[in-house]
Amino acid sequence: MATQTSFIGQKNKKDQVYTDPWNMMFEAERTPSFYTGSEVIKEAVRRASCDMMVAYPITPQSEAAALCGELFAEGYIGDYFRGESEFAVMSQCAGAAFGGARVFTTTAGPGTMRAMENFPMWAGARLPIQMIVTCRGINSPLSIQPDTLEISYLMQTGMLVWHAETAQDFYDWILMGYMVSEEPDVHLPLALCCDGFFVTHTKDMVNLTPTEMCLPPYDPYRSPVPCMDMECPPVRMMRDPFVMKSNYISYATHASWQQEVWAAIERSRKHTIRWMNGLIETENTDADVVIVASGTAVSQSREAIAILEDEGVKVGLVKVKTLRPWPGEEIKEATKHAKHIIIPEFNVTGWLAREVSATIPNNERVHAGPHVCGGMTMPPEIIASEIKTVLGMKVPALAGRG
Amino acid sequence: MSKERIKIAEELYDIMPAEYQDLVKRATYGNEQRGWKDIGNAKELIEEHSLCAGCPESMAFRYILASLPNPEDTVMVGSTGCTSLVFPHVAVHNIHSLFGNQNAIASGLKRALSVRFPDRVKDVVVLAGDGATVDIGLDMTLQAWFRQEKFTTICFDNELYANTGGQESGLMQKGFVAKMAPVGKSFEKVRLPEIARESGCHYVVNCTVSKPNLVEKVIKNAVHIAREIGPTYLQMYTPCILEIGKNSMEGLQEMRDSEKPSERFAYKEFVSEPAKELIAELAAKEKERKAEAKRQLASQTVAVG
Q1: Is residue B18 in some structural domain?
Q2: CB of A226 within 8 Å of any CB in chain B?
Q3: Which helix (H) or strand (E) holds A268?
Q4: What does the pLDDT read at residue B5?
Q5: Range(s) of the domain holding residue B214
Q6: What is the mean pLDDT of residues A207-229?
Q7: Which residue pairs from A39-43 have beta carbons closer than 8 angstroms and sit at least 24 positions apart in sequence?
Q8: Which chain B residues touch A96 with a CB distance below 8 Å?
């Protein structure tokens, strides 16, 4: 059993120095680099001291998954292979995490849906696996284009769910994600989502931490449940498996374990706030109109806000960074002055608007939209137009809106 | 792990459950000669099971757990079904996650243990029913073999879905009338042992669990070959007496009847060339160990004499 209490200052086999994560993320010098989102994923994983990655091709995450394979070939990841389907891949990730490994994987759209049975199992088994989700359409007819509908399913699994806006978010959050999800009082899987193509396939300037620094390795013996490596005594778990019992104790056990998983999500709050400087970011929330958005809808909203500012309309912004834990109190506070709350989304159902509506008082203020889906882009003009309509201002007819 | 690791602090000894005290005092962890003959003499790695009275699967579990060559460093992977009702009673780390994904779990687990413990032996053994192995999990069963993952897959073949109440499975015999096969199963029993051979398994055995010494032999071979060479597969008939209309005491006879030369569980094995060499090596070592033990005994006798 590992008895070493600290690895800080030691080198790994690639000569990277295990660095205090706080120093690495906030004090070490950053190098601006012009990279695609996929390349940024690779660079974050290079510094994440991952023991295992399992890959499977599906657009738009294939490139990132293949780039991580190069990292394995270079010796930065303990083991790497291509699984046979997303369902199998997520089980392979689970097996590795049960065995005490720090695990990384990526998926998208139909792959997320195919693997879905694994996610509540990951959460219930308290496996701090990190999964990048590069969201894409899950509908038929076949679509490979951006669409965030899959996030709404992930939000019910017991996983931590974060929604990155930019490649910079992605880079920082991959590394911070392990620090949060591996905390003993959290110890849950993380679905780190982004909008496919918009983030993965566009180039952006990203400030990277030094290549020669990496996260300290995962310590599986800080887990709240035993690591399955026969390094600690195997005890009989129970006299009669609960699955066989139809009695109050069985129900209470299952119920309390689910409650514990969701309590662990809540406990991740304090760690997440410390690392990510809050679960939301706000701008001008004293305005009458406030946009609440996540992912690249935030970037489009910033553009819309600039357009409206030119026309003399002041609009505030709430960027939702984490969906689980859900920043309900933060959103309530940030929208308390708003007369109108606009929620633009890259999906047909408007799951973010539903979550916000269920959280805040006087939710007739929530305007769910605009919605684009199936790969459509969201021009800032349609957000501006939605806001003007809400305010009763004259709106020019936009193409495609009749 | 060795027996050292499960020792109880002296101050806490009296408050530990009796079965744990027993496990520390009399279990066979670390004993290289452990085998089915320890059953009844040493603390077994399975407590009382929660299967039906007389279930052959309970015999199979006891023989297998007694025969694992390295239980102190073995992790088992199960799946949903009657086996998942037994694993909570087993004193070896074991994983239940979903139905049918056992070989995917084991692939990740074995690789993680190899990354984390590069200089130590950590065996992984999958044990699942025929529905999990051949129907819902066939993809992952085969793909693990294609990839030459180094663990043993054991299928408890009872030729139906026992735990859900006796539905048709792929390993059921053709013509058998069961739930979901109301006019009899329309296709042949899936020939997984042959498929296993073609898929890259280095050791494949099709047998019943009527003979404990045979179970011990094939388990030891399968685990050693998986550890050193590549995937191994054991398909063992563990009839569901409940669903085929037998009484509690009739399980053993059912297995004996089914292993006759012309029957579907007549002993069959496939051993790859590298696996044959390994078995010969192990046999030679065992012979040497016995000879050495004899020499030592003789010298002790002389000394005493």
Answers
A1: no
A2: yes
A3: helix A248-276
A4: 73
A5: 32-271
A6: 96
A7: A39/A67, A40/A167, A40/A168, A40/A170, A40/A171, A40/A204, A40/A206, A41/A67, A41/A68, A41/A106, A41/A132, A41/A170, A41/A174, A41/A200, A42/A67, A42/A68, A42/A70, A42/A71, A43/A171, A43/A206, A43/A208
A8: 108-109, 111-112
Instruction: Verify whether the Cβ–Cβ distance A92 to B108 is below 8 Å.
Output: yes
pLDDT in tens, B7-28: 888 999 999 888 888 888 888 9
Residue B293 lies in a domain: no
Q: CB contact, 8 Å: A375 with chain B? A: no
Q: What is the mean pLDDT of chain A?
A: 94
Domains and CATH numbers, chain A: 17-222 (3.40.50.970), 280-390 (3.40.50.920)
A79 to B92: CB separation less than 8 angstroms, yes or no? no
H/E stretch holding B216 reads helix B212-228
pLDDT at A232: 85
Q: pTM of the full predicted structure?
A: 0.95
* Exposure b/e, A299-322, CB count within 10 A at least 16 = b: bbbbebbebbeeeebebbbbbbbb
Residue A224: pLDDT band (50, 70, 90) is very high
Any B CB within 8 A of A105 CB = no
Strands A280-283 and A315-320: antiparallel
| Residue B296 resides in a domain | no
pLDDT for position A400: 56
With respect to residue B53, please indicate whether it lies within any of the assigned structural domains.
yes
Looking at this predicted complex, what is its ipTM?
0.94
Closest residue to B98, CB basis, from A117, A226, A235: A117
| Type of residue found at A375 | G
- Please say if the pLDDT value at position B39 is more than 80: yes
Give the B window 103-132 contacts with A, CB below 8 Å.
Answer: 104-117, 122
Q: What CATH number is given to the structural domain containing B144?
A: 3.40.50.970
A4 touches chain B (CB under 8 A): no
Cross-chain residue pair A226–B93, CB shorter than 8 Å: yes
The predicted-structure confidence for B228-241, as pLDDT tens digits, reads as follows 999 999 999 999 99
Closest by CA to A375, choosing from A196, A147, A107, is: A147
Residues of B in contact with A52 (CB under 8 A): 108, 111-112, 115
Q: Which of A87, A89, A218, A230 to mutate to test the interface with B (most CBs of B within 10 A)?
A: A230
Question: Is some CB atom of chain B closer than 8 A to the CB atom of A244?
Answer: yes
Residue A1 has pLDDT above 70, yes or no: no
Nearest to A228 among B72, B75, B143 (CB): B75
Higher pLDDT, A333 or A398: A333
Strand (E) positions, A338-381?
340-345, 366-371
Residue of A nearest to B46 (CA): A236
- Give the tens place of pLDDT for each residue, A234-273: 766 556 666 666 777 788 888 999 999 999 999 999 999 9
- Alpha-carbon distance A220 to nearest alpha carbon in chain B (angstroms): 11
- Please say if the pLDDT value at position A130 is more than 50: yes
Q: If we measure between CA atoms, which residue out of A121, A66, A48, A110 comes closest to residue A85?
A: A110
Nearest-Cα distance to chain A for B250, in Å, is 25
Q: Please tell me the total count of domains within chain B.
A: 1
